[in-house]
Amino acid sequence: MISNQLVEITAEEYGIELDIRYAKEDNITGKPLYKRPVCFLHENAAQLLKESVRLAKRHELKIKIFDAFRPKEVQQAMWNHTPDPEFLSNPETGSCPHCRGVAIDLTLLDKNGVELDMGTGFDAFTPLSHHDNKEISEEAHRNRLMLLGIMIMSGWDSYKNEWWHYQLFNPRSYQIFTDKEAGTEML
User: Fold this and answer.
1) Domain range summary for the chain, segments of one domain joined by +
2) Against a cut of 0.90, is the pTM above it?
């Protein structure tokens, strides 16, 4: 555990796969934003993740995490690069649940470790990423509903514009952190 009620989420301890996209070039900015591929969540979110993993496992599925806690300065860099309020929150408005450690971006893997088809990739800033989009395949729609069901049954809230994003209810009741304040040494 680190300061400020954030805990590290490891593949071994949680039985998940990590693909921390903002530690690579494979993200909306085209460059790494984290210096190391680590994952942190507020301890309350980490408890819900454990339940999500348990429910996914019942269906022979595994969770793959793309991002979770995101330091405020990284959110600012993303906003500066792509100021699209449909998919990103401006950290100056105080609305970023990732900066509080209470949001997670994820998908599901089948029993062979293959990502389920969700109709778009992670961080596809397009209407096709919306939960209610009717232009994706029937299979992708079913897979999104499976992810939604697992996450809702685990106690998460969803975000209608991003099939991959889930967060705790009342995220503004949690503190926003910079990397230094959180002690995560991600930058």
Assistant:
1) 3-182
2) yes
- 131-165: per-residue pLDDT in tens? 999 999 999 999 999 999 999 999 999 999 999 99
Quick count: other Cβ atoms within 10 Å of Cβ 155?
16
CATH class of 3-182: alpha beta
Instruction: Please answer whether residues 36 and 186 qualify as being in contact, where contact means their C-beta atoms are separated by less than 8 angstroms.
Output: yes
Distance CA 135, CA 154 (A): 28
State the catalytic residue, choosing from 12, 51, 115, 162: 162
162 flagged as catalytic: yes
- Interval 78-136: pLDDT, tens: 999 999 999 999 988 878 999 999 999 999 999 999 999 999 999 999 999 999 999 99
Name 10's Cβ contacts closer than 8 Å, sequence gap at least 6. 18, 39
